[in-house]
Amino acid sequence: MRSITKFDLQYAHRFYKFKGEAQYLHGHTGILTIEVEDSINEGVNMVFPCNEIQKTAWDYLKNFDHALILREDDPLLPAILKVYEETNLKNGTPQNEMKGYAFKTELATAYPESRLVVTKETLTVEGMIKIVYDLLKDKLNIAKITFSSGVNAASQEYEITETVERCPLCGIALNKEGHCKKCGYKK
Fold it and tell me: Which of 104, 148, 149, 164 has its CA 20 to 30 A from that of 34?
């Protein structure tokens, strides 16, 4: 069975080297859907509490919300960084309260203080799915990710090869020692 969680992400990007409207800097509201698959946890009668899926994923995904996403070879990137430096935005401000975990993967690097994500490839709906899966595959049993942005949408299904041991009291994943960080249960 699957638990399904949705996220709304507001972001700006462009398709560098693309010939068409998308070559210009523009914004979107993207809708990301993550489907987590496992057996029903009998203690709480659900696969995985959706609010816990949201908390786990949001720690990374908030880097994409109200953010600028540029490809690493985009000539706008040095100009943006220069402006951020000159206007004291590069290292963040006290008003920037939605900082996610900083991350660096083969596909993308997040700079939470600057509300900036730098990607290896142009951020398309397919590219976002690849980045999200790469960030969360070790944290959630992801069966499917769907991302829509404007008139574009894509989805990818994944084979579940293992299950995540979960707390019988609250349903969230146990750590390697068999302890629940939420309710204190110990296996």
Answer: 104
